[in-house]
């Protein structure tokens, strides 16, 4: 018999979400049409294809429009920190992708957190999100 704790997905300490890494997941979220644009980032969401079981799944991306490799990595670190702060208690019925924009590197972090909170509030009340 397999112990119950062996079935849990290993997450980094302090993280209550799992990172999306498959390209197909990013394309599915981009095609869903559920998105909110802010000056620092874009939030995309789509209903999960499988059964919505924990943990929450979030993807992060930053194109070369954001800047050089150092700027892109900094932008993604800031987006991961936002996810830790704001997104940890979201329902698991949706997958999310945060796409960095050039302002993600220099924008006020508290302001970005407020924008993410508002964007998520609108996305989770979207008719496609409620249809699940």
Describe what this molecule looks like in 3D.
The chain is α/β, with parallel strands linked by helices. It has a single domain, classed as 2-Layer Sandwich (Ribosomal Protein S5, domain 2), CATH 3.30.230. The chain contains 4 helices and 5 strands. A 5-stranded mixed β-sheet has the order 1-4-5-3-2, with helices on both faces. Helix 2 packs across helix 3. The radius of gyration is 15 Å and the shape is globular. The N terminus is likely disordered.
Order of helices and strands: EHEEEHEHH
- Give the mean pLDDT: 85
Strands of the widest sheet, in order across it, are 1-4-5-3-2
Query: Strand percentage, roughly?
Result: 15-25%
Q: What count of helical segments does DSSP give?
A: 4
Q: Uncertain regions: pLDDT < 50 for 5+ in a row? A: 1-8
How is the main sheet built? 5 strands, mixed
Any idea how many domains?
Answer: 1
Number of strands: 5
**Class by SSE composition:** alpha/beta
Report how far the terminal alpha carbons are from each other: 34 Å
**What proportion of the residues is helical, as a percent range?**
25-40%
Global geometry: globular
* Gyration radius over CA: 15 Å
- The CATH topology turns out to be Ribosomal Protein S5, domain 2
The appropriate CATH architecture is 2-Layer Sandwich
């Amino acid at each position: 018999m397999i112990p119950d704790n062996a079935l849990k997905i290993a997450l980094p300490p302090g993280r209550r979400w799992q990172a999306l890494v498959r390209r197909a997941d990013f394309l599915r979220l981009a095609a869903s049409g559920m998105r909110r644009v802010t000056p620092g980032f874009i939030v995309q969401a789509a209903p999960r294809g499988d059964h919505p079981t924990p943990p929450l799944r979030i993807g992060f991306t930053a194109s070369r429009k954001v800047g050089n490799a150092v700027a892109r990595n900094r932008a993604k670190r800031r987006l991961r920190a936002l996810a830790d702060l704001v997104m940890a208690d979201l329902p698991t019925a949706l997958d999310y992708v945060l796409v960095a924009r050039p302002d993600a590197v220099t924008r006020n972090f508290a302001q970005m957190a407020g924008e993410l909170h508002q964007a998520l509030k609108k996305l989770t009340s979207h008719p496609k999100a409620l249809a699940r």
